[in-house]
Amino acid sequence: MTFAAASAVTARDDGTFGVEIADGWEIAGNANGGYLLAIAARAVTVATGRPDPVTITAHYLASGHPGPATVAVDVLRSGGRHSTASFTLADTHRTVLAGIATTTELHTHAGPVLIDVTPPDLPPPEECVLLVPGDPLPPPFVGQVEVRLHPDDAPFRGAPSGVARMRGWFRLRGGEPVDSIALVQAVDAFPPTSFNANLPVSWTPTVELTAHVRRHACDGYLACAFSTRNIAGGYLETDGEIWDEAGALVAQSRQLQLVPV
Amino acid sequence: MTFAAASAVTARDDGTFGVEIADGWEIAGNANGGYLLAIAARAVTVATGRPDPVTITAHYLASGHPGPATVAVDVLRSGGRHSTASFTLADTHRTVLAGIATTTELHTHAGPVLIDVTPPDLPPPEECVLLVPGDPLPPPFVGQVEVRLHPDDAPFRGAPSGVARMRGWFRLRGGEPVDSIALVQAVDAFPPTSFNANLPVSWTPTVELTAHVRRHACDGYLACAFSTRNIAGGYLETDGEIWDEAGALVAQSRQLQLVPV
Fold this sequence. Notes:
Two copies of one chain form a homodimer.
Chain A: H1 3-6, E1 9-11, E2 17-21, E3 26-27, E4 30-31, H2 33-48, E5 52-60, E6 67-78, E7 83-91, E8 95-104, E9 114-115, E10 129-130, E11 145-149, E12 165-172, H3 180-186, E13 206-213, E14 222-227, E15 230-232, E16 235-243, E17 249-258
Antiparallel strand pairs in A: 1-2, 2-6, 3-4, 5-8, 5-13, 6-7, 7-8, 10-11, 11-12, 12-14, 13-17, 14-16, 15-16, 16-17
């Protein structure tokens, strides 16, 4: 199944969107948070008539599982450049996530430019570590996308690096084109940075995830870097940057995760 | 007027909160976005019965002005550790902002710790540049709080530094204690980082602001650092870090701003 099909939404007469959370996108039995957010993002772009979620935030209220679900979108404002909508994604039992997004039509060549950050230094994709589902890790989800970790950051292969960081390449399976919705998926497609920290931290469920989709990606692999600088008080944040093969910064993300104790 | 008074909320019988957007908190005629978000955050903490907005996001839909307003809070989930609520703040004419927050009771000493970032290197407060309202800049808002810029980052005093960064000290006027709501204010209390970039950028209205309140601040000044690394496509992001005088990282923030062209 393509990502486009797995994240498809169907407008219903009552204004909500019917979706099907696909099989196989789970991590530890729960659908990947970026996948769920991508579904919601697609519904918001359809509801607002604008293709690019320049900023989208979700708070995760319950785990999501394969099966039918509903995205409800409430368009709060629609202006000349932006539309803003709140949304929920609920399965047949409960609300899985709730959030808010602003959509637009991104234009690459608009206004002044200052980029004071560089893509991660990655070996070519074929020299990185392709994640394939294992038992119990890596999870089934990694079989739905193509994630290739920097060899220094591949904890499934050896020892943690000691740095709370994950770098690598991402693309959709088979090289399916990456639209703005797939970028929302990409920001939550890598293993937790905490897997590379020498700390007694494993499962770090997402409390909140915000993604900024800043530019359309060109075809090819995405160079991704995720880092965590503040693990304290039972939480950690993970900052993400996604670059396309042309070297453009296409998305930034931050999520707040729980550190169960 | 204290910050506590300026951000007070009154529960109404219909479940909404009455607020009064105070005079004097404007920037270019519009109430400061962090001030408005602090009002909303206070309403959310009251509605959820939890004092700390560990993550809160707002999207700014219209400018806010002094006068009566209403915060509507919809509690979506209340669990053992977190409550999540969506909210809107509306004046008598229109919705000013909408967002979502998760509240908790922060515990400083919980779980493993890894902090891979340091406070900004600031001269003592008395050697920094106290912002006072001018005509037209700095705006009236700076008279409601105490912001002291690093001398190298004080564009009102001399030339822009050339680095899209703002560092300095923050406290509430008269040393009023800083609670978690005041931290939400602090993340949006500094002049735009773009004032220090050598670019034709001035007014950068906020599209979306997310704050993570990670820890209770001790008494004293807050050391603050804001930086922008990606100005492109008509947007920029500003990342903020707030440290207390004991050297603890108490809040992190990111906002997406429009770069009008």
